[in-house]
């Protein structure tokens, strides 16, 4: 109660001093604290500050800049300055302000102190702060530097091993653990980390072997698939990295790297158990800007069979009810020659793909559908060369 009463008394006296003039009136003297904001004004005075600003502007806060220069006087020796920055970094670290801690430790290292042990501690501490920030490579570099300065520095070795664990360098983590265990065979962290790293290393090696076997299997399946396509004289469009299209003559130039069997939806051409190809096929309806997609169109299936299923019910976008299987015409486009070819709906997919001017692009055959004799189709084909199959 006494303390609170005295505090209250000081508050009221400061307020009254701010409010009273030289003659006891209400005029304020020069530089007085305002009675309503005296606490905030007092906090702005360096000597009464409870918290130091994160960054100091020398032009706007000369008093603080002066105090800081006194605190870190360059006339002090490099070792003393480095130690002061280390202590400052430790304070930031305890407050979990790791970014400021990194800055403080870095400033300490810049002082060029010749004390190897002190520099090793600065590197180790900065590495710990970097680790908490998720900068594992930077933390590892600090651990390496600390270990060079002090080879028996166990904290640096533990930190380096932890960094290698985070970077999934399990073999290196094991080596660091073993180096530390030669210094202290009973160090619990290193014993546990050594066992964990060994387990994860064996798991990673097992996964790598599985991935290699799977990659080899997929490569073999792709070779079989390409052989089946080549046997059928189906031509594919290459899409090289230079974004220029190249069309192969036959399939002599088709390579595994040049053939992409997946389309945008993830469906891909594949061989079924009977050795028949099944293709993802895209139907385009230019008049309505609509599409249909068949994920697995059997090469021996006829187009008319799919049309009968697809248009068993009229699509919602066909407001004029024109899209009937019997009234549709199918085409494919020869982009190289800018020519159109009309398909016979009674033909199978294989018969169309084997046409000398049909080229499968990106692993997905594409056909265009129009209503026979419609104004849109007449306009669309106006001026274009059309071939009938």
UniProtKB/TrEMBL annotation:
GO biological process, any: protein folding
GO CC annotation terms, alphabetical: cytosol; nucleus
Positions in coiled-coil regions: 190-217
Repeat is among the record's keywords: yes
GO molecular function, one term: Hsp90 protein binding
Keywords: Coiled coil, Repeat, TPR repeat
Low complexity bias (residue ranges): 1-21
SUPFAM superfamilies per the UniProt record, alphabetical: TPR-like (SSF48452)
Region (Disordered): 1-31
SMART domains: TPR (SM00028)
Domain of life: Eukaryota
Record has Transferase as a keyword: no
Domain Cns1/TTC4 wheel span(s) in chain numbering: 272-374
UniProt family annotation: Belongs to the TTC4 family.
The name this protein goes by in its record: Tetratricopeptide repeat protein 4
